[in-house]
Amino acid sequence: MPATRSTAVRRGLAVIAALPLLALAACGYGSEAKDDSSKANVASDAKKIDGLDSVKIGYFGNLTHATALVGNQKGFFQKELGGTEAKYSVFNAGPSEIEALNAGSIDIGWIGPSPAINGYTKSDGKSLRIIGGSASGGVKLVVNPKKIKSLKDVKGKKIATPQLGNTQDVAFLNWIADQGWKVDAQSGAGDVSVVRTDNKVTPDAYKSGSIDGAWVPEPTASKLVAEGGKVLLDESTLWPDKKFVITNIIVSQKFLKEHPKAVEAVLKASVETNKWINANPDEAKAAANAQLKVDSGKELPADVLDPAWKSIQITNDPLASTLNTEAEHAVKAGLLEKPNLSGIYDLTILNKVLKAEGESEVDDAGLGVK
After folding, report:
1. Three-state DSSP state, 137
2. Rounded distance between C-alpha atoms, residue 131 and residue 189, angstroms
3. C-beta of residue 160 within 8 angstroms of C-beta of residue 197
4. Segment 303-343, tens digit of pLDDT
5. Where in 61-211 does DSSP place strands (E)?
6. Of 114, 225, 111, 94, nearest to 169 (Cα)?
7. Which residues of 187-201 are buried (b: 16+ CB within 10 A; e: fewer)?
């Protein structure tokens, strides 16, 4: 039975309070951070930027954070930072990365849209800024082809998403609503059973038959395909130009204000890394996988790595209009009160770098610092 309006409001408020704790980035597993800051190869005679001994960079051990993976593995960040050490922390969940940013344990991070929105709104717009884009795409609805043969067959089935209120959960709830089906966002019960399942156990849940499919990011989607699943829908087909933000670059506002030259160095390295990735896709894929092995002790097999890599677009554009749309979807689902995202972006330094590189500047969709 649907909740009463007052109950729904109370639930919505509860979820708003809880979202920073449960909204995993669109890419990640678990909740702990791993410090990967083995002493960088910093030239002893190189000049420090802004007098800093180090810049602390956070990212997820996932292909949707390919810029950070490759930039670390190939030394792009260290090259631009000169005598300032690039120190890395690898996270498994958005909330822990936001907490680290707020605590000063990292300065700059690669992260998904939901945690960025939650971190910004929870701090009343004082904690972070989105300063660049990194990746688009890499999210698919993968199903058991014996049970689901068409999109209409999804009705009545058990479909996993990574977690209540995370980026894929919101996207799937929005897609369900567009089909005219009803699901209680909190419980996941309704015309489709939305089963919140951690990405690291989703393949086993699929193999056991406890779920019929999943709306998940890469590489989980390709892991399901390797287990016999079929891609029924690529989320990119639902977006204009088949592009939507999956990974942003964030910075603490304090660090941005005090060390703009260091931020510029990291953004320049990010742009250089993205250019190299797009010009050398096979080498970049191997570099990303090599860094995954360093960070997690395990690389992805070819039958998972290859299709996952192909579905992710590397970009400097933060695709700001799609972030705003994703927030609207969360509001529509009843998982978020309408947020004030004004000022969440500061693309000034990125556009300076892009202009110097002869590349097109990017837009903040009216959500930039005034």
Report:
1. strand
2. 38
3. yes
4. 999 999 999 999 999 999 999 999 999 999 988 889 999 99
5. 85-91, 108-111, 128-137, 139-143, 158-161, 193-196
6. 114
7. ebebebbbbebbbee
